[in-house]
UniProtKB/TrEMBL annotation:
Entry cofactors: Mg(2+)
Taxon lineage: Bacteria, Pseudomonadati, Pseudomonadota, Gammaproteobacteria, Vibrionales
InterPro entries: Glutathione_synthase (IPR005615), Glutathione_synthase_a-hlx (IPR014042), Glutathione_synthase_C_euk (IPR014709), Glutathione_synthase_N_euk (IPR014049), GSH-S_sub-bd_sf (IPR037013), GSH_synth_subst-bd (IPR004887), PreATP-grasp_dom_sf (IPR016185)
Keywords: ATP-binding, Glutathione biosynthesis, Ligase, Magnesium, Metal-binding, Nucleotide-binding
Protein name listed in UniProt: glutathione synthase
């Protein structure tokens, strides 16, 4: 094949991505494409169908856990001495659930469950993502990009794909998430029966660069007759009020039916230096508490954020299937969930010694942070463990490291407009589910599409936004 055809196919792929909103903001008036693969990752059809038909059980479990205020309090309390952010979250949780006024919010659980398909153990959960569980729209877009390449550039695609040249695995994550949000938004609107369009509020970070993924979801909601509004916590601080029957009102907008938090998972989201009457973080955290005191669909509730923490994941992973049944799972469902939960252990004063005696490469040390940059690998684990104070132990956990099989041949990905060949590409599979008040609100028991992020096996930070990962999609393995 002539080199210029390969180069032209790549250039058109980049242009397709930018044309279809698969982009990250670079400056106030420019954008760049995120890294993406030129061909999808292969998966066995039976394995994929097992994952997608079972992942709703994780949504069912997390919802039940999040609504058990007693469990949440006892699970999170031990880490508050070593993690001031979770101390603040637990305080919010107590204010929402322990006061005279009940928490009237309707919990909308839009969760992404991230798996790695270990070569020996099979698919195992890496983490729950219950707040700011984004990039579903990008997941659908890169699937559509791969489909575009099969039609427009079949020869370069076939050469890049090699034996992975099979049937693409449909991904309707954008439509699935939009349908779930629209259902929740309209249900609250119908409850009040007032006039006007249903209104969806997205709480965002100031000067964020990952905005196009968010706008794709907004555009899909607008196409379904829903008005969308974007505000930071600071902008909401003095803009929210209470209407009749605990209706949430936003100044200049009117009634709000659904609130989706794309912010709130780090302390900086609650900082406002211009508020001088009370501590800035306290003021903006009270805005979040106020929202949950109203009859409005909310993702993520404070309860959901705590229930999807690494701390709770560790407790659930360490529990028996019989114990998991207290959260509404039958025996078969509990066994299925137990199979997905990988090995996690608490950190204590003997952990450094255990890691020294074991092969430290078999483990990952994790704190409670969301997003990239919160995992420790290799010999750095022992160094970090030796530096931890006693009161910090509970805020960390050790997770057995997973080792997926790399692609069987070199993979081609595009970063900053250039093709890079990766010899050992591995993938993380994120499956979206949507539940409203514990009930699935999209077809397939709440399954709402997937997100594939792939990286070299040598790379530890695999995020598309903050690491060395690339957007990817799936193709079924041939017989």
């Amino acid at each position: 094949m002539a080199y210029r055809n390969t180069e032209k196919a790549k250039n058109e792929a980049v242009e397709w991505a930018l044309t279809h909103g698969m982009a990250l903001k670079q400056t106030s008036d420019s954008a760049r494409h995120p890294a993406f693969t030129l061909t999808p990752t292969a998966i066995e059809k039976q394995r994929f169908e097992h994952l997608t038909s079972s992942v709703h059980l994780l949504g069912k479990l997390v919802h039940a856990v999040s609504e058990d205020a007693h469990f949440i309090h006892h699970a999170i309390s031990p880490i508050t001495t070593g993690n001031i952010f979770f101390r603040a979250l637990l305080k919010m949780h107590q204010q929402i659930h322990s006061g005279d006024e009940p928490a009237r919010r309707v919990p909308l659980l839009m969760m992404r469950s991230d798996f790695m398909d270990d070569a020996e153990l099979g698919p195992k959960l890496v983490e729950f993502n219950g707040i700011a569980a984004g990039m579903g729209p990008f997941g659908q877009r890169v699937h559509e990009l791969h489909d575009y390449l099969t039609v427009q550039w079949p020869s370069p695609y076939a050469e890049w794909a090699g034996e992975n040249h099979g049937d693409l695995v449909e991904n309707k994550a954008l439509e699935g998430l939009a349908e779930g949000v629209a259902t929740a938004t309209k249900s609250v609107k119908d409850h009040f029966g007032d006039e006007g369009r249903p209104t969806f509020l997205m709480v965002v970070q100031d000067r964020e660069d990952n905005v196009y993924d968010q706008h794709l979801l907004e555009h899909a909601l607008q196409a379904r007759g829903i008005r969308t509004v974007r505000r930071t916590f600071r902008e909401l601080y003095d803009g929210l009020s209470t209407g009749e029957n605990h209706r949430l009102l936003l100044d200049g907008i009117g009634p709000i039916d659904c609130v989706y938090l794309r912010a709130g998972y780090q302390f900086s989201d609650y900082v406002a230096h211009d508020i001088i009457d009370v501590a800035c973080c306290e003021a903006l955290s009270q805005t979040r508490v106020m929202i949950e005191k109203h009859h409005v669909a909310v993702n993520a509730t404070v309860s959901q954020q705590l229930a999807t923490s690494k701390r709770v994941q560790m407790l659930l992973s360490s529990a028996s299937a019989e114990y998991l049944m207290q959260f509404g799972l039958n025996e078969e469902e509990a066994q299925t969930v137990k199979h997905f939960l990988g090995e996690m252990i608490a950190v204590d004063e003997s952990s450094a010694q255990k890691m020294a005696e074991d092969n430290v490469e078999n483990w990952v040390l994790k704190n409670q942070g969301e997003g990239g940059g919160h995992c420790v690998f290799g010999e750095d684990i022992i160094t970090k463990l030796n530096k931890l104070e006693l009161h910090e132990y509970q805020a960390w956990a050790l997770m057995r490291r997973l080792h997926p099989k790399p692609r069987t041949q070199p993979a081609h990905l595009v970063r900053k407009g250039e093709i890079y060949v990766v010899e050992d590409l591995i993938s993380e599979i994120g499956l979206f589910t949507v539940h409203l008040n514990g009930e699935p609100v999209v077809d397939n028991d709440g399954y709402a599409g997937y997100l594939i992020r792939s990286k070299s096996a040598k790379v530890t930070e695999g995020g598309v936004h903050s690491g060395m990962g690339a957007l990817d999609s799936l193709v079924f393995k041939g017989d």
